[in-house]
Amino acid sequence: MTFTQCWCYYASYTTSQQPAIHQDSMNLVFANRSEEEVIYPLTVNEIAEAQLLDPSIQKLTSDKKYTMLLVENTQVLCKGTAMVLPTALRHRAISWYHHYLQHPGATRLEETLRAAMYWTGMRTTVRRYVKNCHKCQVNKRHKHKYGKLPTKLVIRNPWEALCVDLIGPYTLKGKDKTEIDFMCLTMIDPATSWLEIIELLVVDKPTIPTGTRGHKGISTHNTPQVP
Length: 227
Hints:
The protein has 227 residues and is α+β, with helices and mostly antiparallel strands. Among the domains are: 44-138, Endonuclease III, domain 1; 149-204, no CATH class. Helix content is 23%, strand content 26%. It has helices spanning 44-53, 55-59, 87-100, 106-114, 122-131, 134-138; strands at residues 7-13, 19-25, 67-71, 74-79, 82-84, 117-118, 163-173, 179-189, 194-200. The strands form 3 sheets. The chain has a 4-stranded mixed β-sheet with strand order 3-4-5-6. A hairpin with a 5-residue loop joins strand 1 and strand 2 (19-25). It is elongated.
């Protein structure tokens, strides 16, 4: 069976051992069938009848690029091996392929349709349909672009500039259930990557000390330049 046949047959035996032919829709075969949305594929007869009713398709019969081919014992206007699809059936064809291919995206959907069908402006029609599909837009992979980082200034002289930050307050719990609260002031020299950490009193509001001296009360560096 081809893609255009929307019915599938199977035989089963009744109590009288006579084979009974059942006719089920192809929509019942697919695992992703939805009770809310049942879409039926096009048949060759439907396409052929719609071509006869479409004036724009009838004008193409005189064009050498298009030929009448016999598909499933039915004369259908084709371009190459792809059947020319009338305007009235395009939305239904896109909906069926888009639904049962599990929302493949515009590129894959277009390539699948082109293998069997043709109409002018297919790419525009397919992309418009996918763009208006809510599920496709929600699950679309977005490529976020971020701005470039500014150029880093090279600092050559030690202690010319400082990177200062406050960390904490942190609470450490010991095995004897004692707790220690502490805060620290960190200073990093970007020229040498030298790091100093000074413990501060835990306060409700962080306060930057005015003096930058070590634990022994001796200044460790000159006063940094403030730009």
